[in-house]
Amino acid sequence: MDVSNFISQFFSPAAWSLIKSLGECFMSPTGFLIWTTLLKSALLLVIILGLVSYTVYAERRVSALIQDRLGPNRVGWQGLLQPVADAAKLLLKENFTPKSANYFYFRLASKLAMVPPVLVLGVLPFGSSLFGVPMTIASVNVGALYVLAISSISVYGIVLAGWSSNSKYPFLGGIRSSSQMISYELSLALSLIPIFMLVGSLNLNQIVQYQIVHGWMIAPFWPQGMSLDTLLHPLALLEAFRAGCSLQRVLIWIPLFISFILFFISMFAETNRLPFDLPEAEQELIGGYHTEYSSMGFALFFLGEYTAMIAGAGVITTLFLGGWSLPLVPDGSHGWFWGLVNIAVFFAKVIVILFVFIWVRWTIPRFRYDQLMKLGWYFFFELAVANIFLAALILTYVKR
Amino acid sequence: MIVNRKKLNWVERLYLPAIIGGLAITWKHFQRSLLGKGVITMQYPEEKWDAHLPEWYRGAPTLVKDEHGREKCVSCQLCEFICPPRAITIEPMEIPEGDPWRKVEKAPRAFDIDMARCIYCGLCEEVCPEQAIFLRKDYSITGLNRNEMIHHKEKLYELGGVMTGLVFKWNEKK
Ligand code: SF4
Ligand code: SF4
């Protein structure tokens, strides 16, 4: 108490009581929740915006390297300041609205493209806990449902942009986007159902917890009760493997793996990435829905697209790759250092998936429109439904 | 010609093997470029193609002098008329009494080529009856405003320099 006594000398009694009540307000459960949430949101937003601008940079560098080129390497060491230069350029450009465009919706569309992916990030557990504060902004019980619902809203941005630009190429892009979205949302959502059946919860935190105990969804054989000590004892290790493995777990791997493939491919369509970037096919539609945008209007679409990529990678990580967990790495309750490690692990996984996104983009040519529709309706949808039944059969009839 | 499409079997129709094969190829390129091998990019301002430019390269049009130091242009203005974008403006003058080349009669007082308009077509070089104008190897023509982009006579001679071994038709009659 002497510290607070010491500090209180510098304030008048009235001011000191105000400060004290403020402090109490901050540490009360509600107050604590509010300011930690605000802090977490700010932290996440900063990380994500940085990640977005460097994903754009990485896209340019990786595509260049894949094509035997160098890519941007002038601004700063190895071109690392390129995102800063790009941002400055986009901010300084004229924000032009075509005369025949519908001003209100034209301006609204670019914001609608940016907001949903950021909202999705709100429910992703991007770390275990730091100083006892869970590293999820909102741990909601309908987490996965929320992710699916919000991420499909981003199509409104594209459709509105296409319509309000009052120009034919954006319009075609918008139409393509909406029909693409309808055909892929289905398999995107249906492919996740086996996971929910297995975990029995839609809460993303619980899905991660389940994966820590039972192993990541793409390889659900994590030996139970494994720790650093058992690693040194072969017999205990064997025992742990035996406990983690069973006929059911081997069989459930099949539907889970199909789910992973379906979800991953649908994610490409969801984020308008090549091979499914029909809404913005540069060669056919001169960029599609964002043809008429300039300056920050364009930048918002661009940022929104890459934020969506990151959010998508985050969802894949959380649902299939064990979220922030890494085998044998303890969670944040063992000290702030491990909390930070967990956050780093999450973003490392996200970055790996982002790299795969980029890698695929510069490998596969664009699908034709009818091929895309066929793939979505004739193949993925059926496969996803069959997959659900397969998972249900395994979970019901195969003994553990 | 009708090209028959090969019937794909079901493995090929899955596309996945082909996609994985493609990913392997791009990965190979990525890996190789990452190690700095096989990158074909030329770092422009530091590295240039200049040494590789062919003899017939069509760069900026320039005026040349002959081995006597005489400006070859006789101000016939054919190039001015043929220039498709009308980049050339010539102001002719009479060669004054007493000049050793008085019998040539005409020379340009001013000779401007607007490099902002020139399309490097080479017609001026082709049409010139005196072999006075040539497209040389300068290609990075820059300026901060439109006026700086106009090459005046001095600049044109500076770029063109002296060209020897051309037809010389102003000898004294034997
Ligand atoms: S190269 Fe063609 S465009 Fe240029 S000055 Fe000569 S005639 Fe004109
Ligand atoms: S450069 Fe040739 S074509 Fe042009 S005015 Fe001079 S002599 Fe005539």
What does this structure look like?
The complex is a heterodimer of chains A (400) and B (174). Chain A is mainly α and 400 residues long. Chain A has one domain. Chain A is 70% helix and 1% strand. Chain A contains 16 helices and 2 strands. Chain A has helices spanning 2-8, 13-27, 29-66, 82-92, 103-121, 143-164, 168-190, 193-199, 204-214, 228-232, 234-244, 247-270, 282-285, 295-320, 336-361, 369-397, and strands spanning 129-130, 133-134. Chain A has a two-stranded antiparallel sheet with strand order 1-2. Chain A is globular and about 65 Å long. Chain B is α+β, with helices and mostly antiparallel strands. Chain B has a domain at 53-160: Alpha-Beta Plaits (2-Layer Sandwich). Chain B is built from 5 helices and 5 strands; from the N terminus they run ααβαββαββα. In chain B, the strands form 2 sheets. Chain B has a 3-stranded antiparallel β-sheet. Chain B has a two-stranded antiparallel ribbon with strand order 1-4. The longest helix of chain B has 19 residues, at 16-34. The radius of gyration of chain B is 27 Å and the shape is elongated. The model of chain B has no long low-confidence stretch (mean pLDDT 87). Classes of the chains: A mainly alpha (400), B alpha+beta (174). The interface between A and B is medium-sized, with 13 and 16 residues. Residues 61, 83-85, 87-88, 113, 118-124 of chain B line the site of one iron/sulfur cluster.
